[in-house]
Design brief:
Layout: H1 8-12, H2 20-34, H3 44-58, H4 61-70, H5 80-84, H6 89-93, H7 104-111, E1 124-130, H8 132-137, E2 139-150, E3 166-167, E4 176-183, E5 187-194, E6 203-204, E7 217-228, E8 236-240, E9 257-263, E10 270-272, E11 275-283, H9 284-289, E12 291-297, E13 300-306, E14 315-318, E15 334-341, H10 348-369
Parallel strand pairs: 1-9, 11-15
Antiparallel strand pairs: 2-7, 3-6, 4-5, 8-9, 10-11, 12-13, 14-15
Helix pairs in contact: 2-3
Length: 370
């Protein structure tokens, strides 16, 4: 059963009286979250298309008025060109400086995918691990990948220069072998199998290309520079167009490369979104009386006050000392989880002092209860 279409205001999470600025900001926030070049969840693409359609309607005064007056019937029948031709999505996101496609190429992929034309090559993924420093500051990182590319000598035909593959005489170029059978009683049937002469390709190469051995493609090691946005989220997939697998059909474009970015383990911090966590151990006496400790941050070492009476597993929050949030707006926090060290061995003098403290505490409790 098809999912019911959601109200466009609900899709963007804005009230029906929202102004143009609120609608634009809601769209930008949601589009960044569900952009199919960085969100690889199964429903991200459909969610992004829903968000884009809602923005296209509500950002246009006439379309919005028709929708407010008549609902979905008032905006029915629009083609992708009708909806998006007047919107400069690149301009909407250009000030953010991200390496994601927000222009016409993205909407061609999403809304005109079923159109005519040769099939593009398959997309591929590559993993990239970056230090927290790069998450904090952004900038370029190097990715090295080995991938097949169209053979430059035969241009993908697999045949030696000056020659060409010939149509298979066994199957007539179909790649299939059809054998007709007739049984007693006039029953006819066909047995279809892969052509044994050409292996299902439909062509035969008499003189294979020496460079690729008739494959039509060769493996190449590529070094690419990838722009890492400030505050990039864990598992974000950055798209590099036309660096995937070559297409199997002539003149068809190659697929895309998706670089999946993750942050490498840092001995100082544990990353949780834009927040950083760190465990600090203080001595029992310092937890009781309070102290000051030196703590590393992304910008250098700072001194932090541990209040008197700090309990084990308490968390001290250093606001704004975490990572920048993706898309800007604020920074995360550095959270210090406090562990209290209980001394395992005591000198005779220390034991006597602790016993005196215990006796004083007992006396104090008696006086409070009397």
């Amino acid at each position: 059963m098809a999912e019911p279409q959601r109200d466009y205001y609900e899709v963007l999470g804005v009230p029906r009286d929202a102004d143009a600025k609120a609608i634009k900001e809601a769209f930008r926030k949601l589009a960044l979250r569900y952009h199919p070049d960085r969100n690889k969840s199964p429903d991200a693409e459909e969610r992004f298309k829903e968000i884009a359609a809602a923005y296209a309607i509500l950002s246009d005064p006439k379309k919005r008025a028709d929708y407010d007056a008549r609902g979905f019937a008032g905006v029915a029948g629009f083609t992708p060109e009708d909806l998006f031709s007047g919107i400069d999505f690149g301009d909407l996101f250009g000030d953010l400086g991200f390496g994601f496609d927000f222009g016409g190429g993205l909407f061609d992929r999403l809304f005109r995918r079923g159109g005519a034309g040769p099939r593009r090559g398959q997309d591929v993924e590559a993993a990239l691990t970056i230090p927290l420093r790069r998450v904090n500051l952004g900038g370029e990182e190097t990715v090295r990948i080995s991938r097949p590319v169209t053979c430059p000598s035969c241009h993908g035909s697999g045949a030696k220069a000056g020659t060409a593959p010939r149509k298979c005489g066994e199957c007539g170029g179909t790649g299939r072998k059809v054998i007709a059978h007739q049984e007693k009683g006039g029953v006819h049937f066909q047995q279809i199998s892969t052509c044994p002469a050409c292996g299902g390709v439909g062509t035969i190469i008499d003189k294979p290309c020496k460079e690729c051995g008739g494959r039509g493609e060769v493996d190449r090691m590529e070094t690419l520079q990838v722009n890492i946005p400030v505050g990039i989220e864990e598992g974000t997939a950055l798209r590099i167009p036309a660096h995937g697998l070559p297409a199997r059909e002539p003149n068809a474009p190659a697929g895309d490369l998706y670089v999946v970015v993750r942050s490498e383990q840092d001995p100082r911090f544990e990353r949780m979104g834009a927040d950083l966590w760190r465990t600090e151990t203080v001595e029992l006496i310092d937890a009781v009386l309070g102290t000051r400790i030196k703590v590393p941050t992304l910008e250098g070492t700072i001194e932090v006050a541990v209040p008197a009476g700090t309990q084990a597993d308490s968390v001290l929050r250093l606001r704004g000392k975490g990572l920048p949030s993706f898309g800007g707006g604020h920074r995360g926090d550095l959270n210090l989880r406090i562990e209290v060290h209980i001394p395992e061995r005591l000198s005779a003098k220390e034991r006597k002092l602790y016993e005196q403290l215990r006796d004083m505490a007992k006396e104090d409790r008696k006086q409070r209860t009397n």
